[in-house]
């Protein structure tokens, strides 16, 4: 198998999920940063070739792999794969060990439901682009909006986790649900969500933070992360 | 198997997806409407018992099945299942015929990617509650917002479908991707999206509209649909 290529952006929640999945499956890959806020790819500055070239969303090489121009995009086994959860399900089917889904149908459904609650009910409403657009519309409205929707989603998530969690989101096996949790907790903190309301989310998040396969996927450790991350908000 | 119960709202995109999936799998079910815009359940008016009682989101019977208080919720085989795509994947695993996913891993990934693009990148940003909240913030801003994000999503969706579609979204087999398409086209029309820009989306949408298993899932045919649907906007 040729070395897979992951098109990623350091702070993209969806890219983070796929980095965790690749790490859990022990798949080595090449990291290619897509700068979501640049109109122009940068492979060199003056005469110096950049150690990490940064591609923009419109770069023809990137668009060839994903006409939707979104990260993450994973080039693997000759395929160009898009949408974080679809990529994660593909990785689980192509590389079954360790599994991302329990064997029992009900536990599989609960794991996917928690993943989808994060991916479709919380994340899209507090994405970086949404936050920016609403703050430009009215000063601090984006801040209010993101805080509001993360709280709305976390209230439901806390209830779901009280019902299903053990050590991890669903029982004691690490599943697709856990892969989606760290990025949304990270964002909740950026949007000043009072996490003391959500002790189950916090507990599982702390367990995942200590997991050796989760650590290398953290945004701050990516080659395109700025040195002082909070200043980028 | 006891008759499954679907908690649904006639105009909810996510409920519509599950109605299509149940119809395709030939699963008979009881329809229980959840009125997303009412604070109070109505099982009777004066001394008359309603033919179709309407439950509100806070109804204890409903909350017992889904603490996140969202539709759709499917009670089946003794389980309470939530999140439309998780329910659809469960139905596909528990009732394999006809399948919602192709056999080939790449085609499965493309089918899931199209489904997820609709479910996580388009639908959440134009949900009824978002439209209402932004129109209350500033007259017609919700209209602008929903039109903008459906167009943004449809540009990418059209590109994906040009790449992957045959008769259906991915080749000539009906998949999980198709199950998610009708509701987002229906909403696009409500938000005055110019559909002539998206001929591939339109073509597949028309094919699905004619599918006998898709027809009964249409919002206008649900027991909780008002007689004149457009007036409800």
UniProtKB/TrEMBL annotation, chains A, B:
Family the entry assigns: Belongs to the GST superfamily. Zeta family.
Pathway given in the UniProt record: Amino-acid degradation; L-phenylalanine degradation; acetoacetate and fumarate from L-phenylalanine: step 5/6
Name the UniProt record assigns to this protein: maleylacetoacetate isomerase
GO molecular function: glutathione transferase activity; maleylacetoacetate isomerase activity
GST C-terminal domain ranges (all copies): 104-227
UniProt domain GST N-terminal: residue ranges: 2-99
Lineage: Eukaryota, Metazoa, Ecdysozoa, Nematoda, Chromadorea
Gene Ontology biological-process annotations: glutathione metabolic process; L-phenylalanine catabolic process; L-tyrosine catabolic process
Keywords (A to Z) from UniProt: Phenylalanine catabolism, Tyrosine catabolism
SUPFAM superfamilies: GST C-terminal domain-like (SSF47616), Thioredoxin-like (SSF52833)
Region (Disordered): 212-233
Annotated PANTHER family: MALEYLACETOACETATE ISOMERASE
Cofactor(s), by name: glutathione
EC number(s) per entry: 5.2.1.2
Catalytic reaction list: 4-maleylacetoacetate = 4-fumarylacetoacetate
GO cellular component terms, A-Z: mitochondrion
Keyword Mitochondrion: no
């Amino acid at each position: 198998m040729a070395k897979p290529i992951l098109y990623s952006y350091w702070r993209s929640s969806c890219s983070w999920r796929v980095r965790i999945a690749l790490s859990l499956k022990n798949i080595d890959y090449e990291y290619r940063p897509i700068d979501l806020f640049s109109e122009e790819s940068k492979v060199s500055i003056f005469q110096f070739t950049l150690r990490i070239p940064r591609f923009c969303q419109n770069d023809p090489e990137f668009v060839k792999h994903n006409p939707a121009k979104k990260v993450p995009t994973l080039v693997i086994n000759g395929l160009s794969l898009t949408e974080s959860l679809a990529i994660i399900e593909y990785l689980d089917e192509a590389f079954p060990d360790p599994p991302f889904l329990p064997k029992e149908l009900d536990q599989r459904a609960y794991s996917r439901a928690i993943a989808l609650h994060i991916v479709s009910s919380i994340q899209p409403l507090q994405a970086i682009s949404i936050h920016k657009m609403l703050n430009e519309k009215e000063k601090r409205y984006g801040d209010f909006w993101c805080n509001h929707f993360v709280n709305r989603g976390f209230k439901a998530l806390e209830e779901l986790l009280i019902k299903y969690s053990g050590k991890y989101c669903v029982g004691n096996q690490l599943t697709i649900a856990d892969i989606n949790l760290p990025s949304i907790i990270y964002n909740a903190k950026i949007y000043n969500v009072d996490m003391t309301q959500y002790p189950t989310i916090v507990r599982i998040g702390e367990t995942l933070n200590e997991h050796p396969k989760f650590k290398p996927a953290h945004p701050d450790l990516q080659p395109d992360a700025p040195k002082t991350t909070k200043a980028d908000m």
